[in-house]
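Researcher: Predict the fold of FBA_2 domain-containing protein.
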Amino acid sequence: MISETAKNYVSVNQIMGITRLIFNSGQFVVCVANRDFDNDETKLEVKIVKKSRGPGKLKKITSFFHHKMMRKTTNRTINGVEYEIEKTNKEEYGVDLTFDGISYRCLNSRRQFSIFTNDTSSAYNDLLRHIFDVFPNKTPLFFLDLRGIRAENFVISQDLLCYEQVIQTPCLAMGVRCNEFVEQAHTILESMIELKNLNLDIELEDMEFFHPRMSSIDHLTVHYFKNQISEDNFLSLNCETIKLWSANVSPKSLNFFIKQWLLTESRRLRHLEIPILCLDPEEKQCLDEVFDGLTTIPFDGTRRVQFYKKYDWNYEL
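Model: Structure tokens for FBA_2 domain-containing protein follow.
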């Protein structure tokens, strides 16, 4: 929404860079900051609105008055293409955070825009190119969230993974909700060269999604929808923290995992959590099988609570 002179100034100085890209359903969120001082962040929320075609006379009249009286739009060039844009909201706010015992305050601003187009796919691609052109700082993103991305709007390998800042992102969230997206999901995981934190939403029918990167990632969180994770894949997990929501795991697999952890000399695994455990209905649904061959005692809060600390880690940090 600013002048071409201002855009060129920001681009040439290369101080401002993208920190986060978030794809929500029908909305695209870009966070930018001075990459020499990341505490102050600006959030740009862009909604791509598909124009309706061939409205009736009454709708045309209503839209005309709504446009004149309510909406304040302007035409702007994005990646060489002219779009109708509406600036809908501006907000300033601060967030108090504590990290490694240090308290600080992030000063954030929020801008909301709507882009009206007949071709949503081209609008997304033009917007991506425009954003990386205006904010070309090569520092990797903090966070890439693809859980709300619509595959019909992107060929992710060529439209998104072509940017160096994206493939070096250490923190990725992704949803795998249809069989048609599985191949793209594998391509994304193979392309992320500096990945350390992975958050997956998996909701597939009649198949298991697993990629070798899931075994060696530092921090793995998977939200299953009662999907199965095979014994071989479960036992292959060698992460620092593992959190599996609603995972369908057999008692035997859990038993093997615990025994394997007790016998290994590796101290890499720091935390395993399965908040909602779905035991395989074909197996004996009994904790006796989970603890078979293990020496166990009931948890006594008066004896052990002082030594136990909930492992709570900030996903993005």
